[in-house]
Structures are given as structure tokens and as C-alpha cells.
């Protein structure tokens, strides 16, 4: 471990990842739904990422929002080299990725402030003094009205894994570099096998983690500061940066009635009345990760203004079973949805092309408030896909084509390929299934109708 690492595991590069929750287009919807205004992602804006890693997400976003400026910082030089190689390969000019620690950033605030910030996989991986530096940066780098996104491990889901973390920090490392956590893996597996009956969530989490490579585990569970946090553990320090909690970044997480049964809703209501709603949400959803938005003095937005915004959004039919990361957080957690006939009717209507969220509402012969709920449910559950205005899609096409071509080159040469970027909805695409990759690489039959979906997303492969 080196001096400059401040306790962060810097002996191996982080995985090349793309984060589907990071998209200003969807953040604006989530902010509005939470009753707050948001910088317009369709107009020029400045976007900052703290701890961007190899900046895969940031580079994709720069391709999808060519009218905006993107800046990423990370203190690991390997990450900066990787990011700049991809930026040069794609030929983007609206992004810079720079080497710098949060402490160095805090000491050098820019003259021109930022409208959006993202810190994914950072807050719950660094020591307390580095968290303070992050707050210092947000307090001096962000413009009034700015929105900051944090993706971080949630305490509710991670507490059951505390013993496994402890094993990873206690067991000696193996001599061979590519087997360094061999003894810790074996001990964790043996312990989980003995205890799993009483801790089903621990088993679920460990099963997932045990498949990850050592260099991922180094960051995720072996780092001395890795932990899960509650929302207030982040919200309270951010008050110093004049930032307040705005709500979940992913729209579906605002609609808990879709996830919870009557007893759970009652538990949540009492918690909300008692002022500890976010803790109750984490517990009820057994959250292992939170994707939260915070704002710096955003204006309030009325319900009717929010509905008007949604009404104007173009929608097309979609299929949640495709697992392409277009509707993050939906998974199999939804307990309630729409009857098939209502869904089919909405998809038929949207399928004609050029239809909006408002057209779908109007086609339902029910009062506006109910129509809004129904179309929103179809949308957040992944049965409708939202499209950005045509002018934005067109402006983004060329950069996204170049980003996606670079990803295709990786896929075809069997290198890690985290995902594509969709000019259609301004966010990253990920494939949940290996079979999808084989289809896109031209190695398997397209039994999923992927080619059509990719065309809708504006991804030429
Ligand atoms: C878990 S990775 C997440 C990377 C990326 N945001 C993602 O989600 O794919 C955390 C990143 O924070 C960076 N980091 C940690 N401490 C830092 C510090 N004090 N200053 C700047 N970057 C730091 C690491 O180098 C690493 O790239």
C-alpha cells in the first residue's frame, strides 16, 4: 500500500464498469417526480465524476450528450491512462479525465461550477477523512441548483456480510498474486455453508461475490474501509456542502406501492410519519445498494408541472425480460403490476410510433391522476421505453456510434465489454445475459429479437 492511497486498495485497477443508473435524462425525471426542479439535460451543462475509475460511464455519457462538458477525476494513474486511450480511440472532445485526489480537487475549486456530479462506488469504500474531502469538493465545485448522484453500499443489506468482510481482512493472503484471496475465499465459503440457514441474505450476497475476480473483491470486501451505510450517514455530512436529499435516482424506487404488501406499506407509513422513512425503505427492500440524488438549493416543482413534463415524453413498447439495463432496479422485486390486457393495450398504442406518455394517458378512459399512475407503472416496470426528443437523439448518434463501435471491437476480440450507450434514451445499456453477448458478437441465433431492440435504442451493431 502506498502513501497516496489513503487506505484505498491501489495495487490493482478497478474493473471496467458501466453504471446504468448514471444518466442526467432519467435523473431529471426522478427529481421532478420528487417535486424538485433539475438542470435541463437537453441544454448545455457541466458534469463532474468523482472517482471515475477508467471512466467508461463518463465517456459513454460524453458521447450521448455532445452539447455538455464532462470532467472525471481519479487518483489512480492506471485509470486515467485507460480512460484517455478510449477517449482518443473514439475521438471525443467534450470530456477530460484527470489524475487527482479529492484532497487536491478540494484545494483547487474551478471558476466555472458544475451542474451535475456523480460518485458511484466511492463513498462506502474510502476512509472517513476522504469522505470529508468529497464533501469539500461538492461544497466548492457545484453550482446553485446542482444535482449530485451517489451510488453506495446500503447498510441494511450488507450487515449480514460483516463476518465475511472480517474473514477477508483477517485471513492471510496466498503467495501467488492471482490467488491472493484463496484462503479467505475458502474460509468464507465454509463459514457461509455452516450458517446459511439463519442468514439467507448473506448466502445470496456471498454466492454473487464468490464469482467475482480477486481484483474486484479487493475493492468490494477486502478493503479496510469498505462498509454499508444508511442514507443519513451520507446526507448529514453533505449538509456542509449545502446539499439535501432529493430521493432515489431510479424512478421505480419512488413508487414503493409496487414493491410492498399491505403490512409493509403500513410499516413504511408509520416510519415516514416518524421521520425515518429511508431506513424503513432500506429494511423492507433488503437494500444492498442505494442510488441517491442530492440537490444544492433546487426549486420546488409542482405535481401538475411534473405530469406535464412526463406527458411530452415519447414512448415505445419494451420488454423487461430482455434485461438490458434500460430499467435498473426493477428486477424481480415488483409485487404489483398492470393486468395483461391493459399492458397490451398500452404497448399496441405506443407501438404505432411517435406516441407520447400523454397519448397513452389519454387512451385510458379514466381520470387523469389514475391514467398517470397506470402509464407510469407500465413505464417503470420496463414495459415502455422513454425516448429523448428527436433533435437530441440525432445530435448524439455519431458519438454513440463511435463509442459502440469501440465496444464491439472489444467484444469481438473477447476483451471485457461493459456495455453500449443508447442515443435514444441517453443512458448505458448492459446485458444481464451472456447469451445476449453471443448474439451481438454474431456467434448465436437472435432468438431474443435483440437486433430490433438495438435498432430502437439507436445502437448500430
Ligand atoms: C470502486 S471504484 C468505482 C469506479 C467507478 N466510479 C465505477 O463505479 O465504475 C472507486 C474509485 O475511486 C477512486 N478513489 C478512491 N479514493 C480516491 C481519492 N482519495 N481521490 C480520488 N479518487 C479516489 C479509485 O481509484 C477508484 O477508481
UniProtKB/TrEMBL annotation:
Gene3D superfamilies: Vaccinia Virus protein VP39. Residues 214-296 form the Methyltransferase regulatory domain. InterPro entries: CFA/CMAS, Methyltransf_25, MeTrfase_reg_dom_prd, SAM-dependent_MTases_sf. Residues 48-145 form the Methyltransferase domain. It comes from the Bacteria. It holds the Pfam family MethyTransf_Reg. SUPFAM superfamilies: S-adenosyl-L-methionine-dependent methyltransferases (SSF53335). This is Methyltransferase domain-containing protein.
